[in-house]
Design a protein that fits this description.
alpha+beta, seven-stranded antiparallel sheet, five-stranded parallel sheet, about 400 residues
Length: about 400
């Protein structure tokens, strides 16, 4: 006798669970409910439309370090389904992938539609029923079945439920899940850029620094990596990582905070000052504006000189000790007031969700209710940018599918 799996959410985690559960057990009827008009919409726009599928991080102990929340929970899960398994799964279905220099993995086609087509083809092969433009308002258990009520008033009865509808930005959106007795960790945004629209540094929009160290002042929170100056402030991997790790602190401070930036991380303030002093001996007659030290972009170098009050005519021999000190501090401990945030393109991620202590980390089944499962961002798990959030989606979706399929077989 067939049993039914109802998947709430047609994103990466939900669809991956659906196709794998259907493949693993032919006696399972699978239905996917999606609130919007499109399936896999985040897959479509991720990685600039190329889909950053996962990351070339094949050590579980290293992989979990990229998750500000959920690292311990994911350790067991990743031992069962890791980036290697993701690559093998897509390869087996004709999708070849490539690894870029920074470790991000994309389909060779450089087109996210390749990933979407692969998953939708699996859905078609296994006769998965898709219902779009349907949102859930209530979920409860009657006898041995789950009953899902839709906004339309329609009710669906099912043996198993997978909730994989992504991260809700507002706590009240979790109401129908909270009604089952599950605890919700309050949601806050993660992965966002920093706004400082009135600061003159925004005049340098478009300039990218390959490696900086950025610190949240007054905390131990610090990250390194590339940084991009935008017309509204700061973005790039270093900023996004800091926003993720400090997500709750920044929310508590209403996104009003200070950062300090070392633009030349191979130097600290004293060694930077020594380098400037040496230039007075090495090139005393050279105009400082023509120097461009530390491999910095010339526009950026000129901006820093202006900030230090050093005009275009000053030569190294004429650089005062006071100016040396100011410039050294600007280059290694540049302080910036941040006022607000901006979502980084498609990388919107929410920290918070289902409390992980209430979910089995190897099956994704609720510890409170048999037959209820969670996958993806609906749980209090989030990763930094680079394919880590998708990897969690594939992993949690697959583990839920495996348990649902085997449980069904056992009866």
């Amino acid at each position: 006798m067939k049993k039914r799996l109802l998947v709430v959410g047609g994103g990466a985690a939900g669809m991956f669970c659906a196709v794998n559960a259907a493949q693993l057990n032919a006696n399972l009827e699978v239905v996917v409910i999606e609130k919007s008009l499109k399936l896999l919409s985040k897959v479509k726009i991720s990685g600039g439309g190329r889909c950053n599928l996962t990351h070339a991080c094949f050590s579980v102990s290293e992989l979990v370090k990229h998750y500000p929340r959920g690292a311990t929970f994911l350790k067991k899960a990743f031992h069962l389904f890791a980036p290697t398994n993701t690559i093998e799964w897509f390869n087996a279905r004709g999708v070849q992938v490539k690894t870029e220099d920074d470790g991000r993995i994309f389909p060779v086609s450089n087109n996210s539609q390749t990933i979407i087509n692969c998953i939708l083809n699996e859905a078609a092969v296994h006769n998965i029923e898709i219902q779009i433009a349907q949102s859930v308002t209530d979920m409860n258990k009657r006898n041995n079945n789950w009953v899902i009520r839709l906004a339309s008033g329609k009710e669906l009865s099912t043996d198993f439920v997978l909730v994989a509808c992504g991260g809700f930005p507002k706590a009240e959106q979790f109401k129908w899940i909270k009604a089952t007795g599950h605890t919700i960790v309050p949601p806050v945004p993660s992965l966002f850029s920093f706004n400082c629209p009135q600061h003159p540094i925004t005049e340098l929009m478009g300039i990218s620094l390959p490696q900086v160290i950025i610190k949240l002042k007054g905390t131990p929170m610090v990250q390194s990596g590339p940084l991009l100056i935008t017309h509204w402030g700061l973005s790039g991997p270093a900023v996004l990582k800091l926003s993720a790790w400090a997500a709750r602190i920044l929310a508590e401070n209403a996104y009003q905070f200070k950062v300090t930036i070392n633009w030349i991380p191979n130097f600290h303030e004293n060694s930077c000052r020594e380098r400037l002093v040496n230039m007075r001996t090495e090139k005393p007659t050279q105009k400082i504006f023509n120097a461009t030290l530390f491999n910095l972009p010339s526009r950026f170098w000129h901006f820093m000189l202006n900030q230090a009050g050093i005009n275009q005519e000053v030569r190294w021999a004429d650089l005062t000790a006071k100016s040396q000190n100011i410039l050294s501090r600007l280059l290694t401990a540049f302080e910036l007031d941040i006022n607000g945030k901006t979502t980084f393109k498609e990388e919107f991620v929410t920290a918070g969700g289902i409390n992980l202590s209430e979910v089995n980390s190897t099956t994704m089944e609720s510890k409170l209710h048999k037959g209820l499962y969670f996958a993806g961002e609906i749980m209090d798990v989030d990763g930094v940018t680079g394919g880590f959030n998708f990897q969690h989606a594939w992993t949690s979706g697959f583990l839920a599918a495996s348990h649902i399929a085997s449980f069904n077989e056992n009866g």
